[in-house]
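QUALITY CONTROL LOG
STEP: pairwise intake check
CHECKER ROLE: data steward
CRITERIA: each record must contain a sequence immediately followed by its structure tokens, with no blank fields

ENTRY 1 OF 2
RESULT FIELD BELOW
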Amino acid sequence: MVIVIDPQIAGISGDMILSSLVNLGADKNKIIEGIEKSQKFLPDSTIKKIDFQKIQKRGIESTQLILEINENVSERKGVEIKKAIINSVNELTLSTKAKTFAESCINTLISSESKIHGISEDSVHFHEASSIDTLIDIVGITIALEDLKLFEEKIVCLPVSVGGGTVTFSHGTMSNPASAILQIFKNSNLNIQGNNSKEELTTPTGACILVNLTNNPIEHYPSMNVSSIGYGAGQKDFDTFSNVLKIIQGKENNSEMDSVKILETNIDDISGEILGHLIEKIMEQGAKDVSIYPGITKKGRPTNLVCVICDDTKVDVIVDTLISETGTLGIRISNSNRLIVPRTNHSFSLTFEGKAFEVNYKKSHYKGKSHFKIEFEDLKNISNVVNKSIVDVELFLRREIEKMEDL
């Protein structure tokens, strides 16, 4: 099962996540009961009314959180909110994974404020986030995730819309996204994007919950069969789009998706020996693959296109190598989703031509069919030891594996 969070258009907030999960099927009565039990941990805040109702957001029927509260505070220390959240999830006897998630969410929010203002986490004061809203969002979402058993599922996230323009709050007016949003996403793999709405579309609470829910970014929907969709409405209304967060649950089509970086550069003035050395060095630095293609560029110049596939964490070191080893003046960097066919690693021992060998191979599975590939280094080693061609060795080993696998 895979869960896709889609904040590409309307962004994300705590109440939108919570409402989406209720729309997806989480027990709203269980959530409301848990939140009402938790309010006692924040004195001076009282929930007058809490409910979820179906509404229309520019033609989309969705669920919205209805909340009325009485509060006599304008700021609270972050550690006070944290203590209230921890006490709440402990009293509600949630799972260890759920408790860890809830605490991580508030820790992220406190940490971001601490780093922005250059103060200790114990000294952090919340203004906008001081409301019981923060507790309601984090505790409610934790209950909903556990009710839907989503802590055990794979969760991925499309690019997060943060809006545009400026935002005005307790610290004055600044460009959107505000510093808290940027700090929260700073150490996450998730991607953010602006638009021309001139509104804050992603809130700090929504962002801190999201980065603790998933660190798996995607650019496009995975290949999947959709089983259910949750539509969670935000409080604002916009003229050009529905202010609705979508959370989609479905079954992946026997494949795994991840996100990789593609590095490309054209090289037209170095030898084949240097290119060969370049491949070896980049692979040693953790690239997933390196390809070099001959081509023709402007003015009929022959060129070699170097294409590297790697994880985000390897980009800087590989870029340095490409520049230092080739002298290239530019590198194109892009994100790409990658479908990974499920595979398993296997090994077995056998005697061939009177000598014992350990043979390793990978077996892949896709749409009911299986294939296998023998590790080339093993083929080469056996070929050299028994003085037979790699073709003959591979033919023999494939027959042996097919007998074992009953293929």
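ENTRY 2 OF 2
RESULT FIELD BELOW
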Amino acid sequence: MTSDEVVQVRVARGVATLTLDSPANRNALSRAMRAQLRAALTDALADDAVRVVVLDHTGRVFCSGMDLAEAAGGGSQHQGVREFPELLELIWSSPKPVVAVVRGPARAGGVGLLAACDIVVAGSSATFAFSEVRLGLVPAVISAVVLPRMVPHVAHRLMLTGQAFDAEAAVRGGLVDLVVPDADVEAELHAQLVELTAGAPAALTETKRLLRAGTSLEFGDLLELSARFFAGDEGQEGIAAFREKRAARWVPIDD
């Protein structure tokens, strides 16, 4: 890794771990961070060997939001007005599950980054804040991924006040899925990855599409989807594996 690289990439046992690695500026969403993260995500989603994507970080801070040093005095091109929504959409609509691991503070756009993920695991010392209003800004772009996750009245209060809140409050508000002691984050992440990689790849993709679509699909479409998977290769393999009391062929084998 060179000094210009701010995203580390590691692929092992079907999991692509993308690590934000710019602790000097608190993993802010600089131009370099946005570009490299988007490229790493694109590569991971195109790699058939990757089953799950993990978004992790080095340093004390998960992500402090947009790089305000770059944005100061600049036009919209310096603020990632187009790049950041596209990055959030890439995570949100990913056909593969994306897991965020939050080991420290997340602020503004950093909260949007984790909110776009499917599962968020946080250490108990992690904190969060929609700090935009205190900077004279609006949490407009991140609202597209935050609001579907959060309890409405909780999001309303926290976005208006900009106050920081802890991991337990984040769970109650729907922003975070799992909170564990800081020392147990790796173990919980591993447990979630074991569960996710036990699912069949195409079934996971269709299930995520179903979840993102919400109630917009007609009953007939749902019936067709169910029947297609029952009769499909994955469905038949899964049923056979269940009957034969063995792991399905898509489950990673420990080395």
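INTAKE CHECK: passed for both entries
DESCRIPTIVE NOTE, ENTRY 2: The chain has two domains: 7-196, 200-243.
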